[in-house]
User: What shape does this take?
Amino acid sequence: MGDNSFRMQQAWDDGTEKLISASQLNDVPKPYTGKLSCPHCHHPVRAVPEHASTSKNGKPYTVSAHFALQSEKREPGQPERKAEHRPGCPLRPVETLVDIARHSGGLAEVDGDRLELRLVITETTNSKRALLPAPGAPLQPPPARPVRREVVSRQPSLAPAVTSAARIAKFLALYENAPATARQFTVRYTGHPIPWTRFSYGPDPTTLGALYRRLRPGPADHPVAVVGTVLAAGTSRHGQPWRRIAAKVPTGPGQSPRADVYLRSDHPELLAPLTIGTHVLALAAPDVPWKIWTPSHGGDHHLVLWPRAHWQLAYWTTDPATGRISTPRTPPAVTTPRPPRPARPKPPVRNEVQPPPDRGTDPRTTTAPATTTPSSRRDTSPPTAAPTTPASPAENPTTEQNPSPRPAPPPAPPAPPAPPIPPMPRTPPSPLSVPPEEPPQHRPPNTKKGKGFLHRWLRR
Assistant: This one.
């Protein structure tokens, strides 16, 4: 890869022990006091301020400020080596791009000094079946009419696509999103190549303003991603979390309205990892585009995305002291709880006697306590003795003198009969009341004899 495409934009100052940006090299006095080195592999570098130069064809041009690697001292008899970052440094372009392609699940391919990311995204309401091809296999575009099927849990089937895009954004951030470096990346969606600068916008406010002007007439014809840093976090009055990743973005010349970039979601678990200071890449979907909200009484406009799936977001952090960037990750998958099913009635057990329903007491069956014997037809339960109260020693002194068992008390007198109650014709008769049996009626014998066949034959 050419040195003009990947120029270092940050260096570590051993004197101040701080990171120095290439945009500070033209400041007076110089922002560094000690030796400069790579912030990741500590390879010696040198500062190159902005200056004018001439190409081989004699055409003048301006060289932007950057940091260049210094050639290491070679030992006598050793061939001269080209200055490059040490192994394992994220600023090694070839190794970094090859590593992105290796962990992309077959979605990224490196061709010379360029990387092409094939974006495979479907609607967020599609099934959870993964649409990722095998590594190295040609990519088949998604169906024109995918099967829309609601699922309970959306598995991380499309996370490699957004994670690879986040790693590219992380790599470009090391070079401060230089336009010459961004031209080395391309996104292919449904067979059409899209330049990286037309796919990802931010964190530069100028590019975010270009996105606002692009989305103002209507949604884009392909998914668009935004890169930014969480500036504020909160919850709306309806209980929906929000994150602001850009503020006061100029949308045009003059007194044009300014716009804030927001992330809102109905799933709090998607925005929970996005704390203040976290870098985020938010990706739209075919059924979840970026929208512009315009206030009715003036004020800043809002560029809002409502992510519904975890693969629409990727986040990473940067150590402010060393400048090291963590590995991009995606939030946990969204899980929609199933509605509770109604409890089914317990089936009755066979050969089990069910108690009769409690229909109340029929006043017509309220009679005096039964005084019949156990052999009675209507009442087969044994008679119940009336409860008695033992007498005190003062009331019954004989019991104390005679230790023999005392005789059974006399039976309690029967209770007076209850007053008669008028009949209730509408109430059905109680099953416990049995009507008396009617005696059979006596019929006299039939003394009349009919004239049979012999009688009629003799009279002829």
